[in-house]
Design brief:
Cobalt-precorrin-4 Transmethylase, domain 1; Rossmann fold; 3 domains; four-stranded parallel sheet; 39% helix
Length: 339
């Protein structure tokens, strides 16, 4: 038996923060020309990185690889204050593409530290977002990655504790951990569910629904994408077989044996054209029953960083050569995401 039905998760793929970050790199390339340097991967997706690199973006691990005075973009995952200091010392022209929801976590951490609270940060050690957040007030932050660590974490004053989380974790991911922390620290300050990334939660909820309808779930995304890996795990928790695939070429035919219904979703950093390629793969197999499942219609949009809006305004006030008026440019709109 081969698949006869294909279900597509709604929502899936790019979130507003990812749209904004990719748009920032494209806008910077148009404004300043290549090369534009990007510290770390702007988002965790191989295809996105390769496309931007082909346009002239140069991805580096640290600012030491960036020439003095160059344009550098900080990724959507945020950076620690020391990185900003280093950029200033090198006289770099900084454009900050940090997701506004990540910035919100940074602001919370600083506020809690100013209130003389210890901050328990729930997240994955080594993730770029966690490194950036911990860098704000390293002496105040205690990282917890699972329930066992929540049971063991020690803070100087158990009565003055707050908790915040990595944005790519959903409500379900943190529920047990925060429950343990509430029991251990009854006076703990817990952020509202509004602090959970809307896109993370929406995509996990959609996968739960699909996993009940399909025998196989394919999650499109890169292996270094935390939210993509979690989508696969969520599907498996719901008793569906699930695989994380970079693109259609990574699908193995043996996965499809004796499978009638396949569900498709994509991590928040995976472009929609990869989903279309997977759909085309199944069309070639003869699948004609293809449906989108889900009712959440995300309308969130973030504006560009102020560094770009200022530059756009400056150029709009300056006379431009006539030849530029016919060019195909995304710079006519300041709103992001840019598609």
């Amino acid at each position: 038996m081969k698949p006869s039905k294909l279900l597509l998760a709604k929502p899936r793929g790019f979130c507003a923060g990812v749209e904004r970050a990719i748009g920032v790199v494209n806008m910077a390339l148009e404004l300043y020309g290549a090369p534009v340097y990007v510290r770390k991967e702007i988002v965790h997706n191989k295809h996105v990185i390769e496309e931007l690199a082909a346009k002239g973006a140069i991805f580096v691990e640290e600012l030491g690889e960036v020439p003095e005075g160059a344009v550098v973009i900080f990724s959507a995952h945020g950076v620690a204050p020391i990185v900003r200091t280093d950029a200033l010392a090198k006289r770099l022209r900084v454009i900050d593409a940090t997701c506004p929801l990540v910035t919100k976590v940074h602001v919370e951490a600083i506020r809690y530290a100013n209130e003389d609270r210890s901050i328990i940060l729930v997240g994955h050690a080594g993730h770029d977002e966690i490194i950036g957040t911990r860098g704000e007030v390293p002496e105040k932050i205690f990282l917890v990655g699972n329930v066992a660590e929540a049971e063991k974490v020690q803070v100087p004053d158990p009565d003055r504790v707050a908790v915040t989380t990595q944005t790519t974790l959903g409500v379900d991911d943190t529920r047990e951990i925060i429950s343990v922390l509430r029991r251990r620290f009854p006076k703990i300050v817990v952020p509202s569910t509004d602090d959970i990334c809307y896109a993370t939660q929406n995509r996990q909820d959609a996968v739960k629904d699909l996993a009940r309808k399909a025998q196989l779930v394919l999650v499109i995304g890169s292996d270094n994408s935390s939210n993509s890996r979690r989508l696969r795990e969520v599907a498996e928790i719901c008793n569906a077989r699930a695989y994380l695939v970079e693109d259609a070429s990574k699908i193995k035919t043996e996965w499809l044996e004796n499978v009638d219904c396949v569900a498709i979703t994509a991590g928040a950093s995976a472009p929609e054209y990869l989903v279309r390629e997977v759909v085309d793969y199944f069309r070639r197999l003869g699948v004609t029953d293809i449906r989108e499942v889900g009712s959440v219609d995300e309308q969130v949009m973030f504006t560009p960083p102020p560094e770009l809006t200022r530059e756009l305004a400056r150029r709009e006030l300056s006379p431009q050569p006539a030849a530029d008026s016919s060019s195909d440019s995304t710079l006519t709109s300041v709103k992001l995401p840019l598609r």
